[in-house]
Amino acid sequence: MRIDRSADWANPVPPVRREVLSATPEADEGRPPLLFVPGYGHGAWLFAEHWLEHAAGRGFPAHAVSLRGHGRSGTAPGTGLRAYVHDVVQVAAGLPRQAVLVGHGAGALVVSHALARYAAKAAVLVSPVLGGWGTLGMALRRNPVGTIPALAGAPLRVGRRQLFGRELPDEQARAYASRVRFTSRRAQFQLITHRAPEPPAGDPPVLVVGSQQDGIVSQAALTRAARRYGSAPLLFPGMGHDLMLDTRWREPIDAIVDWLEKD
Amino acid sequence: MPSSTDFDSVNRPVYDRGDNTVCVIGAGVSGLAAVKNLKEHGFGVDCYERETTIGGAWNWRNDRSPMFASTHLNTSRPTSEFPDFPMPDDWPDYPHHSHFLSYLERYADHFDLRPHVWFGSEVVSVEAADEDGRWDVTTQSTGRAGSTRTHRYLAVVVANGHNWAPRMPRIEGMDEFRGKVIHASAYKDPAELRGRKVLVVGGGNTGCDIAVEAGQQAVKAWHSTRRGYWYVPKYLLGRPSDQVNMRVAGLPLRLRQWLHRRVSAVAIGEPMSFGLPKPDHLPWESHPVVNSALLDRIGHGDITPVPDVARFHRTEVELSDGSTIEPDLVVLATGYEPRFEFLHPTLTGSGPDNRPHLLLHAFAPQHPTLAVAGLIQPDAGLGLMVHWQTVIFARWLRLRAADPARAEKVWQRLHAESGKQLSQGKLTDVPRHWFEVGYKKYLKELQRLLDETEVPA
């Protein structure tokens, strides 16, 4: 853990208005709040579709944030991974109790960095895109047409079949895919160039969730991500990258809540 | 709850809190950080707080709080906050004391710290209990009413603050002076200055802040300083000046001192051009006085700078240059004395100078299970420093249990390097400077200790 962060302190991330969607349980049962962090290109709406209400129904206050430049959050110049991490940490620290951070896709990368800046209760990485050359290799293999222009600085295009499982009706898949926006170019490059995250503050338990059929994250990448936090991934065969939009969206969120209840 | 009952030397019962519970004294910034970090490392924690609320010095309702209505942080947010729980980013760069208190309250609620705090309990004594380095902590209701209780703990973190016991100078003739003399700790509101002739004594941050208020409110304001100081404006180049300093913190001290002089000469001017004495030290050799308004007010004639006070007479104050002034209110901003009445001085390594001699300003040299949190005066915020001090202490306690041999090595190393200078440049030896640290140097030492105390899972 690096404690002298002078370069960071000397140059604070500018504040923006942040969109936070919430669902709260009818009675406060003292459960830790969940903060869902969508991946690049997605906004807080991703979790408002099914997961927020479902988590609240099981007694956990649930919130989802849109990273700056996404959803209805504001924009600021110089946006990149560091600013996204800042957004997550700011929203988490503003919650009344120590929160569980749940990051999806590249949002899991943001969460893995945020854990060093906020003492979370626990963290869940869903279909984590932790970046590096492995992510690039997979992207080139599965989606060369969308990826090669991105290497030259164009926005990364992700195929709809990479995001969703086969069971999701085509029309629905097309509707969801149309809501996916491009992320900051700097953040896109930082997927490959970012430094490994610092160790988490306070050593929270971390769960990795994913699917073997994910068109963006390989099973090897899931195993690697889980191993970094000393566990094995929890797998949901047959689902796409966007587990929370799948027809079987209930299974992973129930598994996550079960895992939290166990502690 | 007590797991077993023992009796101390005078036959009072001692409630043993077990092998894993640590006592924290005080629920201010430092105490709360200690509670949170010890808890996070798996320790049980009992925190004793003499007041009925958290916040310590930052809670203006507390008897011993030195806050006055307009007190703001004089370090900007990024280092004033705890590094794992930031303040809201839409707060001002230099938050007001009420902001900072609400931040501490949020911290306590967020991490559920309040159940660990025993409010209205004053610590009467901390005594070594046994060979294992455990401690008997005796407490009593605040005000010393009622009976005492003694609990036994694995370790103790002293976080009772160092800005509550006023240092009152003895100046000849003070008793016969007919005007009012107060210590800065008793100053609360600028209305107290309105319509009066005010002399503010002391060139530290508090003295300068009050002098500026006197300049705005009083009929006449004098500001007496013993020496010349360098003033750091709150903003340089449109940014909080501590953040600007951090950008160049990696440069050699000499170069920074030169830069500081050049840049602040442009921004607010040199003290000498305002008729103030030339500082007898270089910038950054003593705790910076962060104030943009003082020189400005002097330039407007609202504040008259005067030399040291020589003695008081019945209606006037005689200065060291022989001249006299006639204030009717004297505010002594002469600082505070760290006090640990409940600890035997030898525990903190205090010598004849009555100052604790702690390893890295935090760890009792002869007692590996006793630490003092927050007894430093850094040129950056305190939240950052005290967080890592307490994380390290928690890790250190873990390491002692898990790997005594390695712990012993770390301990030897700390002792061998106990003479290391933690401040920048040579310090001017006045009472308020002995626990100053240069943040960069200090963090480097903390980093090293943090790495050394890592316990493999």
Describe the structure.
The complex is a heterodimer of chains A (263) and B (457). Chain A has 263 residues and is of the alpha/beta class. Chain A has a single domain, classed as Alpha/Beta hydrolase fold, catalytic domain (Rossmann fold). Helix content of chain A is 38%, strand content 11%. Chain A is built from twelve helices and seven strands. Chain A has helices at residues 6-9, 45-48, 51-57, 81-93, 106-114, 133-142, 144-151, 160-163, 170-178, 185-193, 219-228, 250-262, and strands at residues 20-23, 34-37, 62-65, 100-104, 122-126, 206-210, 234-235. Chain A has a seven-stranded mixed beta sheet with strand order 1-3-2-4-5-6-7, with helices on both faces. In chain A, strand 6 (206-210), helix 11 and strand 7 form a beta-alpha-beta unit. In chain A, helix 6 (133-142) packs across helix 7. The radius of gyration of chain A is 17 Å and the shape is globular. Chain A starts with 5 loop residues before the first helix and ends with a helix. The longest helix of chain B has 21 residues, at 382-402. The model of chain B has no long low-confidence stretch (mean pLDDT 91). Helix content of chain B is 26%, strand content 21%. Chain B folds into two domains: 4-164 and 337-452, FAD/NAD(P)-binding domain, CATH 3.50.50; 180-332, 3-Layer(bba) Sandwich (FAD/NAD(P)-binding domain). Chain B has helices spanning 29-40, 77-80, 97-110, 205-217, 241-247, 253-267, 293-299, 382-402, 404-416, 439-452; strands spanning 4-7, 13-16, 21-25, 44-49, 117-119, 121-128, 135-141, 145-153, 155-158, 180-183, 197-201, 220-224, 231-232, 235-236, 239-240, 289-290, 304-306, 309-312, 317-319, 324-325, 329-332, 370-372, 377-378, 436-437. Chain B has ten helices and 24 strands. Chain B is of the alpha/beta class. Chain B starts with a strand and ends in a 5-residue tail after the last helix. In chain B, 46% of the residues are buried. A five-stranded mixed beta sheet of chain B has the order 1-2-8-7-6, with no helix packed on it. Chain A binds chain B through residues 1-15, 86, 89-90, 93-98, 117-119, 201-203, 230, and chain B through 36, 40, 77-79, 83-86, 88-90, 106, 109-112, 243-244, 246-247, 249-250, 380, 388, 440, 443-444, 446-447, 450, 457.
